[in-house]
Design a protein that fits this description.
Helices cover 39% and strands 16% of the residues. By secondary structure, it is an alpha/beta fold. The chain folds into 2 domains: 53 residues, Multidrug-efflux Transporter Regulator, Chain: A, Domain 2 (Orthogonal Bundle); 143 residues, Rossmann fold (3-Layer(aba) Sandwich). The strands form 2 sheets. The protein has a 5-stranded parallel sheet, sandwiched between helices. The termini are far apart.
């Protein structure tokens, strides 16, 4: 332990939980953490102390409210701000992750382990068509809900092969009431099962498969 931060293993030992449980609590927002340049997590001692105090108050109490992890892959900075502003008003907890291009979006899928992915189609690097098709085809992402939000005409989307059947397609301007309903449905299903299932398994994202995937 260094100053006010602990490693994930140290946090698990302090809290009396498994290493995997401590990792999940970080991913779900129960514990506050950041990553070093080498990719190692450092968890704030204050959040560990808060979790420990809660555990001591009631040994049978549930962990803090589940924060729904949502990944938004969108290169329009103004639109990202709109997403964040709207989602901040939702009456359930969320953890929002963003990626400005397809390559970073693929990396963030593995890092953020999202329950919901919201993706544009016209993206720099790897286009959205490739991302949603890949996510739909891989078994380990079977529980991830995918929503495509695009201003492309339906004819142009069809010309690129369309989107998989499990993907919900939304046009712009964004129907935030529908997005909220989708997110709340996922949140309700997860909390009803006590958050025991992993929506995304640990994985190495094969970025090399998507070289040259920009939509022009």
């Amino acid at each position: 332990m260094v100053d006010n931060y602990c490693t994930t293993r140290e946090a698990a030992e302090i809290l009396g939980v498994s290493l995997r449980t401590a990792q999940q609590w970080v991913e779900k927002g129960y514990l506050q953490a950041w990553k070093t340049h080498g990719g190692h997590r450092r968890i704030t001692r204050s959040s560990i102390d808060a979790a420990l105090a809660e555990k001591r108050r009631n040994a049978n109490s549930a962990p803090p409210a589940y924060a729904l992890p949502i990944l938004i892959i969108e290169d329009d900075a103004a639109l990202l701000k709109l997403y964040l502003a709207q989602m901040s008003r939702w009456p359930f907890a969320t953890s929002i992750y963003t990626a400005p291009n397809g390559f970073e979006g693929l990396v963030m899928v593995g890092e953020s382990r999202p329950a919901l992915v919201i993706c544009d189609l016209r993206l720099p690097g790897v286009n959205g068509f490739q991302i949603v098709r890949w996510l739909s085809e891989i078994e380990r992402y079977r529980n991830v809900r995918i929503v495509v939000v695009s201003g492309l005409p339906l004819g142009e989307i069809d010309a690129h092969g369309g989107v998989p059947g499990k993907v919900e397609l939304m046009s712009k301007p964004i129907d935030f009431s529908r997005l909220k309903a989708i997110a709340h449905e996922i949140w309700s299903e997860y909390t009803a099962t006590s958050g025991d299932k992993d929506l995304v398994d640990d994985a190495v994202i094969p970025i090399h498969e998507f070289a040259g995937g920009a939509l022009v």
